[in-house]
Design brief:
By secondary structure, the protein is α/β, with parallel strands linked by helices. It has 13 helices and 8 strands. The protein has helices spanning about 25-40, 50-55, 60-65, 75-85, 95-110, 125-135, 155-160, 175-190, 200-205, 210-215, 220-225, 230-235, 235-245, and strands at about 15, 20, 45-50, 70-75, 115-120, 140-145, 165-170, 190-195. The strands form 2 sheets. A 6-stranded parallel sheet has the order 4-3-8-7-5-6, sandwiched between helices. Helix 8 links the parallel strand 7 (about 165-170) and strand 8 (about 190-195).
């Protein structure tokens, strides 16, 4: 995708449960991130999985927030399946985990300033340490745990702003992370903010990502559940997602 004026770019999307999900590859998403940073203006990226789309059905504020995002990537086999039912056969999965890792590669090359917010105390810091080792030159300028109440959002936003990040990764879970981003966008001043769920747990080593063959079979959700049975509440959204998609009017 050529770098161009983002205000004029034509978005190809597929509508899933009332949410326009962008038909983008990982390479196109990274090109857009570069454009977003170059623009100097704040942008929100939502990594939309089945759970997030189900939650949006009962949360009008969250739904409108997703609709207003600058990029909504298809994160998860459920979203890819739903798109395929509408005739979109070649939709790539663009997950928060992969965006985070590939942005670290970009940071090492271009010097982008990254900030990690979320997870339990020490997890984002450990993820940052491991990613710096894996990608020398990756410019992670700050980390903070996600254990704070919503009424402290402004204070936390000011704390992050002191590090002057270009790109903010927020792992607070949906819809908390997106609502935090929206509430603090003007305070933090980052050009890009991305909600990435439990990605810091993966890169810290706390959670092991599914092997590639399981990912190809689209059973990564089952792998996560086996490793962490407490995720059952998240997995329980999947049957509802399937039902909603099957009954959705074209």
């Amino acid at each position: 995708m050529a770098k161009t004026d983002l205000g004029a770019r034509n978005r190809e999307t597929v509508l899933i449960l009332g949410v326009p999900v962008d038909r983008v590859s990982m390479a196109q998403s990274l090109d857009l991130i570069e454009n977003f940073v170059a623009s100097g203006q704040p942008h929100l990226i939502v990594t939309a999985d089945a759970t997030g789309l189900v939650l949006a059905k009962s949360d009008p504020t969250f739904l409108e927030l997703i609709k207003g995002a600058d990029l909504v990537t298809p994160d998860g086999s459920g979203v890819v399946w739903a798109a395929k039912r509408q005739g979109v056969q070649n939709l790539d999965r663009v997950s928060g985990v992969d965006i985070l890792e590939q942005t670290c590669v970009l940071s090492a090359d271009k010097g982008y300033r990254l900030y990690f917010l979320g997870a339990a105390p020490g997890i984002a810091e450990l993820a940052a340490e491991r990613l710096r080792l894996k990608y020398p030159g990756c410019n992670i300028v700050g980390t903070r745990h996600g254990y704070f109440p919503a009424d402290s959002d402004e204070l936390v936003g000011k704390e992050i702003a002191e590090s002057k990040p270009d790109i903010l990764f927020v792992g607070l879970g949906m819809p908390r992370q997106e609502k935090f981003i929206k509430a603090t966008q003007s305070i933090v001043g980052a050009k890009v903010a991305v909600g990435i769920g439990g990605s810091f747990d993966v890169f810290s080593g706390k959670t092991k990502r599914a092997p590639q063959w399981i990912q190809r079979l689209r059973f990564e959700w089952l792998w996560r559940l086996m490793l962490n049975p407490s995720k059952i509440s998240k997995v329980m959204h999947l049957p509802r997602f399937v039902k909603l998609v099957l009954t959705e009017k074209p």
